[in-house]
Design brief:
about 525 residues, PyrdxlP-dep_Trfase (chains A, B), about 10% strand, homodimer, PyrdxlP-dep_de-COase (chains A, B), alpha/beta, 7-stranded mixed β-sheet, PyrdxlP-dep_Trfase_major (chains A, B), pyridoxal phosphate (chains A, B), 5-stranded mixed β-sheet
């Protein structure tokens, strides 16, 4: 049985006294059987270890067990029924879910800006789930209220702030929307009560690289509208051009709008570009605009002495969002919003003063009840996984991971240059390596009329093949007038040179007949 | 060693070939040691089992190990440093986090609308964490795209809809804000591009029971403004009065505002009241308003044939939010937004058309890429825990839990009536049991001038004592002109009559000298 569970909770809870009433006789028994439940959890843990963490990170096993949707639905037997199932059947379901899910921890999963695995972070996540609490009051989450404050302090210190505020949010989008909302509130405190309907048209500025699609969604959600997101031009590397920002702000003002928010990016999604923060800060200061840095992807570079210059000037921002679930492999979700503000803007902007949550006659310091800094009533604990991992490897360990990721990306680029079929979109500034694979039949035919059309079709075919064979996962996309190209994101701590070589070999193999 | 890990991933990944270059020599080694990592995870799992799931659910152990914030910060040694720590030190940290955290699974934790434990749900949560994926494309989350659709279908069926749409959101607040945003978009599709600044003043209606504080926060976030949340009166049980809603809508129109959204509640936070949905639907139809039901707390009643009448008419709503992490014990977070709409409003309202995520030339049905239904770019998988639990107990099992919770609440009320010091706020409609404890010294002195002031101070003192002694956790709050009263929420599947009796005994013990 369960050798780790020597306490007597099970027997104690199920020892029934004589019932007081016949109608209520079942009320003396809990509806959950601890022994059976813990056995199931233990068996699930074994499956997780074997299928997800051993096989799922083993290059001898597939990244992906591709099935067509209809076939997969049948295999999983998803239907929810009136009656329950026996434990062995449920364990088979756990096994099936693991089997047919993408192995995002696998060294050959490079499809997204998350992936890999860190066991300390994962331990922190299991503990978070087991403790199942809501990060809103000191009363219900004493450890995590203090821990979150410490982790935010540590992240702010890397930005260059000794004071400030912040919060973990459910993903980068939420962090960025929070920043927008706080900036709006700072400019027009009356917006909280009166809304936007009496206000002038507000303008937001961001660059023309891809994440502007997301910025538009957030602006729409906040009632600002996508038309009020002004797109600033980028240079050839995908970096916002400060002079263009300056001109567009001036233009917007002349058209009667009120510019209030600039969203710069440190590490764009596709190209991994870093906007020139120092120069943008000059423009923001000149026009008195809120400067926000979306460092969801690139923020982790701040750990590295060698590469942190990419975010030079970040300390001049008003707010920074940073997702340690990306480059630091903390696990989804882990997204911090950091604020330079020391005037309690976050709380003032978001508080609801709900007396049922935040009683004013409590016996401890009410500033510890952080829940009214958030518009969420339930907020998951996202700090423990990062805290535990940070304790395990230290800031030096994080720096080592970042530096190694840059070196791996450099190695990958060098290898590409040695091979005939790989054509880089640009020299990478970060760990995003963007390239076209030119199949043998197309090499040397760049002048042909349908070359770009044909090239656009290469990546989707290779992608379909790699998915169906399950050997690896790499993403592709078009960008502006550039047709479909692959983007490798090189950051998983599991990666080795051999994996890099494999990626290139495999793309050649999958695309050689195209 | 690890008997569950028989595969050779560790050795395979750390077998280094000769490095190609001296600069890059470390690139042949992964930065994560699987053997060491899996051992740590295994040890953490043992601590979770023992501290959180055995002791943490055992009535012989405390719910809460209260420490003052400064003392706790010292005990936890939260500081983040440059260098990492050895495994045994990290395991001690895991142990400390477990020790000083509130045991929300404990039968005597009744402080919030979450708590208890379901082992199948917890197994689903561990698996979710290990698989670490983002629910936005079929490509990266094939199992969960299909599973989420099926779970949403099952929940919609209980609402009474054979078709519709939906999404799991990071908490009920997000679900409710989504509903508001979609309703706004349906009324004024141009709001997505133009924002609110050219539109008339929009009005939202909700009842005067406590959750209106949250509704105000969401309205502020969406740019609508708290002044535009119109408060509808409630009856003596805390239920919205449809005639007052009708009058207030008419009044708002006459004042030039555009009413567009009514947020009803099925299971209010404090009193557990259910708004009369059928009558409210009549008013919404008459005025052509979007009817939203915030059933975060009470939605789970739909599983029970005996009690589902409390939500009679819910099928007439346009949208419903429902948090299975509350009454169904799915674990934080698990919040569904359900829509009756079949015209793809959700996607139209929230889509960003980000080409880097949703390529139009994929080799499978793009409708499976659900990510652009959400304003989040990263969205956690929240369906697996509920799906697995549903498979384990079936709809019948959920119905049994709901019915038992009602019976437990009934038992608690009956016992209170037998005791002298307990005074009910009202007969409960749901599993929220609200009451004042009248200490012996105050009994029979209701006529005294300072009676209410003295009564208001009773609950905070008892609360402080129970926290510091760690015997149980129950919440209190004032409501309107009613001074501080306790609210027990009786739903944990671990609860027995003995726990109910204990609660009453313990409140008497803690308050007998007041």
């Amino acid at each position: 049985m369960l050798d780790f569970c020597k306490c007597s909770c099970v027997t104690l809870l199920t020892t029934a006294d004589e019932p007081e009433s016949h109608i209520l006789c079942d009320l003396n028994e809990p509806l959950v059987d601890h022994t059976e439940g813990q056995l199931f959890l233990n068996d699930t843990f074994k499956i997780i270890m074997e299928e997800v963490l051993c096989k799922g990170t083993d290059i001898k096993h597939k990244v992906c067990e591709w099935k067509e949707p209809k076939e997969l639905a049948l295999l999983l037997d998803l239907e929810l029924r009136a009656t329950g199932e026996p434990q062995h059947r449920l364990l088979q379901r756990v096994q099936d879910v693991a089997k047919y899910s993408i192995k995002t921890s696998h060294p050959r999963f490079m499809n997204q800006q998350f992936g890999g695995v860190d066991y300390h972070a994962l331990a922190g996540r299991f503990l978070t789930e087991a403790l199942n609490t809501n990060l809103y009051t000191y009363e219900v989450a004493p450890v995590f209220v203090l821990m979150e404050a410490e982790v935010l302090r540590g992240l702010r210190q890397l930005v260059g702030w000794t004071e400030g505020d912040g919060l973990f949010c459910p993903g980068g989008s939420a962090s960025n929307m929070y920043a927008m909302n706080i900036a709006r509130y700072q400019h027009f405190p009356e917006v909280k009560s009166q809304g936007l309907c009496g206000l002038p048209r507000l303008n937001i500025f961001t660059s023309s690289d891809v994440r502007n699609a997301a910025v538009c969604t957030w602006a729409a959600f906040l009632g600002i509208g996508t038309d009020n997101v002004i797109i600033v031009e980028v240079d050839e590397g995908g970096r916002m051009i400060p002079d263009d920002l300056d001109e567009k702000i001036t233009l917007a003002k002349s058209q009667g709008a009120v510019p209030f928010f600039v969203s710069c990016t440190s590490g764009t999604t596709v190209r991994g570009a870093f906007d020139p923060l120092d120069l943008i800060a000059d423009v923001c200061e000149k026009h008195k605009l809120w400067m926000h840095v979306d460092a969801a992807w690139g923020g982790s570079v701040l750990f590295s002495k060698q590469h942190s210059h990419l975010l030079k000037g970040v300390y001049r921002a008003n707010s920074v969002s940073w997702n340690p679930h990306k480059m630091l492999v903390a696990g989804l979700q882990c997204s911090a919003l950091l604020l330079q503000d020391t005037t309690d803007l976050l709380r003032k902007c978001h508080s609801a003063n709900a007396t049922y949550l935040f009683q004013q006659d409590k016996f401890y310091d009410l500033n510890l009840d952080v829940g009214d800094k958030s518009v969420q009533c339930s907020r998951k604990v996202d700090c423990l996984k990062l805290w535990l991992m940070w304790k395990a490897v230290g800031s030096i360990g994080f720096a080592e991971r970042v530096d190694k990721a840059f070196n791996q990306a450099r190695y990958l680029v060098e290898q590409m240059k040695k091979r005939e079929g790989f054509h880089l979109l640009q020299e990478p500034e970060f760990v995003n390596v963007c390239f076209w694979f030119i199949p043998p039949s197309m090499r040397g035919k760049e002048g042909m009329a349908d070359y770009q059309d044909r090239l656009a079709k290469v990546a989707p075919v290779i992608k379909e093949r790699m998915m169906k064979q399950g050997t690896m996962m790499v993403g592709y996309q078009p960008l502006g007038n550039k047709v479909n190209f692959f983007r490798m994101v090189v950051f998983s701590p599991l990666l080795t040179q051999k994996d890099m070589d494999f990626f290139l070999d495999e793309i050649e193999r999958l695309g050689k007949d195209l």
